[in-house]
Amino acid sequence: MYKIVILWMTVFAFCLFFCSCGESDKQRKERVRASQISDSLALKVATLPTLDCLPVFIAADKGMYASNGVEVKIIPFNAQIDCEQALLNKQVECTVTDIFRAERIKAKDPGAAYITTTGAYWQLISNRKARITEIRHLSEKMVAMTRYSATDYLVNVALDSVRTENNVFRIQINDVNVRLSMLQNNAMDAMMLTEPQATTARLAGNPVLMDSRQKSIFPGAFIAAGGLNDEHRKKQLETFTKVYNMACDSINKYGIQHYADIIKRYCQTDDATVKALPKMLFEHAAQPKASDLARTKNVKWRTN
């Protein structure tokens, strides 16, 4: 009998403890609501695992946004199209993109505006096992890219520079990591890659057929959705730009390898790739040049 009493007293004590420590339904609802309000007030930025997003990654990782009075939440994606859809669906306020797709966004959301261009470049890289060493060898080969984007435009530029005997097959592979994986697994003949995926591909001995820098084409960009004209969002965007510039200065001062851990984590890459990354200069936020925007007008998108 004594043992039973002790047992019931123990159970009762545990119940009291959990009831006193447990969260009431009202408290839980208030906590969820507070979290939702905080999330809605944060500036949400869609990113890709690519180096044009490095200033944003560094600023977030080092607490530079918070120390400058702005809450920024990074929403990672692996495909440019997914970033843009999140922007159009009002799930994020800003996204990384390129000027070709940005102009298409602006056609759907006239209030959308550029935050900055980036120094992102793309390389046309072929599969070393396919023995493609020149652009003209792409005849009847498959090239991975994203439709109506900088990668699509750059494939145009490459093919316009030569004459191929037969059609070149453009295969839409939007996920940047899947695209690289298809090269590594010999499932694609060639593709457009930016950093750090391009470095990974080069390290494996895959030839570079064209580099957008040689054509003086730098179409990378960040764009903000329309309807961000209230004082809270305007202040956020101003501070975001200020911090972006600070992060660029830090990269230029210390070098890309100084942020190896951040690159590996956010860009889903490895030590060998980070060590082999070329030196890159990150410029302060600036609007696209008129000459670059002119490239987006009346583009004749190929179907083959």
Describe the structure.
- This protein is of the alpha/beta class and 304 residues long.
- It is built from 13 helices and 10 strands.
- The strands form 2 sheets. A 5-stranded mixed sheet has the order 2-1-3-10-4, sandwiched between helices. Strands 7-6-8-5-9 form a 5-stranded mixed sheet, with helices on both faces.
- Helix 3 packs across helix 10 (231-254) and helix 8 (176-184) runs parallel beside helix 9 (197-203).
- It is globular.
The poorly predicted ranges are 27-38
Biggest β-sheet: strands ordered side by side in the sheet = 2-1-3-10-4
* Order of helix and strand elements from N to C terminus: HHEHHEHEHEEEHEHEHEEHHHH
- Tell me the span between the first and last alpha carbons: 87 Å
Instruction: Report the C-alpha radius of gyration, rounded.
Output: 24 Å
Shape descriptor: globular
Give a short account of the largest sheet.
Answer: 5 strands, mixed
Number of DSSP E strands: 10
The tally of helices reads: 13
**Structure classification:** alpha/beta
Q: Name the helicity range.
A: 40-55%
- For the residues shown, what is the average pLDDT? 89
Strand content: 5-15%
The gist of it:
The protein is α/β, with parallel strands linked by helices. It is built from 13 helices and ten strands.
Show the helix and strand layout:
Elements: H1 2-21, H2 25-41, E1 43-47, H3 54-61, H4 64-67, E2 72-76, H5 80-88, E3 94-98, H6 99-108, E4 113-117, E5 123-126, E6 142-145, H7 150-160, E7 169-172, H8 176-184, E8 190-193, H9 197-203, E9 208-211, E10 220-224, H10 231-254, H11 260-267, H12 271-276, H13 290-295
Parallel strand pairs: 1-2, 1-3, 6-7, 6-8
Antiparallel strand pairs: 3-10, 4-10, 5-8, 5-9
